């Protein structure tokens, strides 16, 4: 666990970048620091590995005051990932990933094996090992940056806007991959971003900061969306809060209707409905077609592909979206293998939402914090 206890940073020119910050980043969890430009996120992060020294207050790591530890020893246990990856341009990908294990004196073979395994884990095969950073895309460079930070297997990771420099689609992939990796690794992570959507997605808990280095609210993502503590946080969290909050609510048992289906190549002529769902041989939905517009067999060109598909075990948001996006207004619900289990109408999802509990309970001792 990383604990900030009354930490203030005042730069020599008088700027107070961080003001009396008290915060716990629990072991094995991702704590996100989010807020507008200049609110002190990077300063807070860099005080953890003492790239910046606090002016007052203490930061402890598993109960030990970091101010009393040797900086080199402290940093050995902390991986650091930054925007644009910060790779050494004149070293190969493999050399980059091997940097820290070599510094800490890990054996040559062990270092090599670990580096190769990590590259694999971040989705870069052996082919990339001998390339130079300039021969990689931005997203691939970020992956190397993550692999390099993980190379010495540090229990703590500091990540400063690690996925900000790539386009939104790649960013989404990197976030998903990193979350999968973190499921296995369980690192204690402080993650800085200015993007509230990224914060909500990545954080086990989210600390919203405001300019002047103040902590405005610390809460779990669902709580933050449902109970912003003031106008600043509400504005910062942004629009569609109610809808986005459904991402954190598992779909309850829904009244699924069984759906008549046909397979590709079959004729839709006998179907007495405006829309019919087309599935493949494994009963996986492919799209909807309008029987009256089809003369003969159903081909893949005739499929309406606009509808999304929701997993029965997934969040309510996906189920509502499936119902709203379906041209037939019947939302397609599948099991974990992707096979059709039934369809649900928008008003049925809304009824389920109405009947569901609001997320998390107020913590009376500390409004705005996650329930104890
Ligand atoms: N070395 C420095 N000397 C003086 N002021 C500084 C120094 N470094 C940062 N600051 C100021 O401290 C405040 C916080 O900066 P910091 O970089 O921590 O913010 P941030 O939230 O990470 O911003 P961004 O999202 O723009 O990176 C800003 O007002 C910044 O101008």
Automatic annotation (TrEMBL):
It is an enzyme of class 7 (translocase). Residues 2-237 form the ABC transporter domain. It comes from the Bacteria. Its EC number is 7.6.2.9. Pfam families: ABC_tran. The keyword Transmembrane helix does not apply. The keyword Transport applies. Keywords: ATP-binding, Nucleotide-binding, Transport. GO terms for molecular function: ABC-type quaternary ammonium compound transporting activity; ATP binding; ATP hydrolysis activity. Belongs to the ABC transporter superfamily. This is ABC-type quaternary amine transporter.
